[in-house]
Amino acid sequence: MDDEQLRAQLTLPRFPRSAAYDPRWLIRNVMGPNPLWLLEELTARMPLRPGMRVLDLGCGKAVTSIFLAREFGVTVWAADLWVAPTENLARIREAGCADRVFPLLAEARELPFAHGYFDAVISIDAYHYFGTDDFYVGYLADFIRPGGLLGIAVPGLRAEIDRVPEHLRPYWQWEFASLHSVGWWRRHWELTGKVGVLDAWEQDDGWRYWRHWCRVCAQAGEDETVREASRHEARMLDADEGRTFTFALLVAKKPEVGGT
Ligand SMILES: C[S@@+](CC[C@H](N)C(=O)[O-])C[C@H]1O[C@@H](n2cnc3c(N)ncnc32)[C@H](O)[C@@H]1O
Asked: How far is the CA of 6 from the centre of ligand 1 (A)?
């Protein structure tokens, strides 16, 4: 696929901001479903203002952190466990954002910040790795100022399941047990009272966007490992036809005072 074809494939009317980013750069830094499409959808319902202090939790290769700084003028702490901050700094500098995006190594369960430090925490395709623990949202809320925001976008399920659907058996990975429905996430957060859910939704046609991204990466991925993993994921989504997998997006607000 040449550059022009690739750009055409990744220019979708639904995600105009994402379309402005270099497709080769995006694919070179792929770690899962297109993080900019998820972030663009999330932030359309999350009021971010210039100057806000935002934690990008599980930022991976900091693609989302760069997008947040550029699109919204926020200051971003780009925190990740698997990707080294030195590697992310090179990408952040190259994108001209080093004055507004600060990379660091962080374990989500041992965050090195003061309580009340952030105006918002955002997590794209990462929160399910640590956030299914009943106690986690209460722990994380401590780092958000009163009235601050929490927004996540994660791969999820249309509805909770008790067993692996037959059609997904050839593709199932044990880690999929961390995927949940929007309703599950909403209940999980609301019962704590630590945050109030403002909005919770499934991405319309989310599985089709996911599959489209996989198909593009299957052709344009930089190495055969990426191309084969993408082909495999596209086949899984084909077999599922939107019956099981989706994306769950939630925006919540920490109470202005208290939060029991
Ligand atoms: C699938 S990648 C997504 C990365 C990025 N947000 C994106 O969408 O491109 C999941 C990320 O979650 C991070 N992660 C997983 N467990 C974590 C933990 N306990 N603390 C911090 N980050 C974690 C990993 O380091 C990884 O970069």
From this structure: 26
Residue 219 CA to ligand 1 centre (angstroms): 24
Q: Report the chain's mean pLDDT, rounded to a whole number.
A: 97
Q: How much is the pLDDT for 258?
A: 55
| Ligand 1 binding site (Cβ under 6 Å of any ligand atom) | 31-32, 35, 58-60, 63-64, 80-83, 106-109, 124-126, 129-130
One-letter amino acid at 145 equals: R
User: For residues 150 and 121, is the Cβ–Cβ distance under 8 A?
Assistant: yes
Domain ranges of the chain: 29-204+244-253
Nearest to 79 by CA among 96, 103, 43, 114: 103
Q: Which of 40, 48, 44 is nearest to 17 (CA)?
A: 40
- Which are the contacts of 179, defined by CB distance < 8 A and separation ≥ 6? 128, 154, 155, 156, 157, 245
Which residue's CA is the closest to the ligand 1 atom numbered 13?
A: 58
Average pLDDT score over residue span 16-32: 96
Q: pLDDT of 62-72, one tens digit each?
A: 999 999 999 99
CB 65 within 8 A of CB 53: no
pLDDT for 257: 80
> What is the pLDDT at residue 176?
97
Distance 82 CA to ligand 1 centre (A): 7
Q: Quick one: fold of 29-204+244-253?
A: Rossmann fold (3.40.50)
The whole-number average pLDDT for the span 193-210 is 97
- Indicate if the pLDDT at residue 166 is higher than 50: yes
Nearest to 39 by CA among 9, 5, 78, 3: 78
